[in-house]
Queue: 2 jobs
Job 1
Amino acid sequence: MRYFHVSNEVLAPGDLLRVESGWSKHEATSVFLAAAEDGRDQVAALLRAEWVDAVRSDGTRRMEIYAKEAIFEQIRRMEFPSAPARHRSAFLWRDTLDAVWFRNGHRSVDSVIAECEAEHGFEVDMSYFDESYLDIARPLLGQIGRAEDFARKYWSAEQSGAPRCEILHGGPVRVIRLVNPAESS
């Protein structure tokens, strides 16, 4: 099947995509994924920890994204174990319009959009992931429950009123060509 991928890395036709996402390479990922195995209270405690402030001060992305990923991974492991893990998947899009939407909202506008070929992937509505924002300045328990509800909708492949379908793919994904910026805007 043909898909589109957005990358901050240099890609060329024939390349195989690496299946780990950028956040999966950060040291915080393993800590938050371990917390996810221990449940919601552990994720909330981790967000309150001084360690988070120390990591955040080094210029990395918000720690809330790691907590959100951990919550989604916890729900996947417990309730949807056959679904691919986000941190071990390439993120693909059905068309250039969705790829451009993702690039403009989640990556640099200088990111590369590549047309790729892969077997059928696991299709989910990214709207649920985006809506599950965590604000560590507010009480977390209700927010974590809300994020868990969104994770269940995401992993069950439920469609929102305005779906943005991303395809998670844990297998080989080959770059066919780079998309010309003129055809992706």
Note: The beta strands are 2-7, 90-93, 112-117, 122-125, 165-169, 174-178.
Job 2
Amino acid sequence: MILPYQKGDGSLIDAVEEGQWDEATSENSVALSFWENGKIKACAGMKFISEDDTILWLRIDRDKPKKMFEFFREMRFAMEVAIEELGYPALNAMIRCGFEKSERLAKIFGFLTTGNIVEHNGMEYKVYRWLR
């Protein structure tokens, strides 16, 4: 079952990668939680920090969901709807350096690496670009 992300959902996951995810949710974000057998197995989202930039994040349980493709499909749809409503022709995704699962998610969503690294709130992020 896929539901809107609720603050604290990420803390219910025994994650493969550690990070701060609740700070990446706000009124300027799209985030979903994937439930399987009564447990949250994955959360993912996008926090829009400017007209061109977003932070793309992913948190996956060590016991990976069996229907991960379904979760990614729904997350991509939510992302496309949000971008369409905002009218963005292109979007940068900033993914914290070392978060390989989030990088893989960006590629699944169609983002391409720019080769740039930027700093945001004292942390380094790789920059990916998505064009409509």
Note: The longest strand covers residues 39-48.
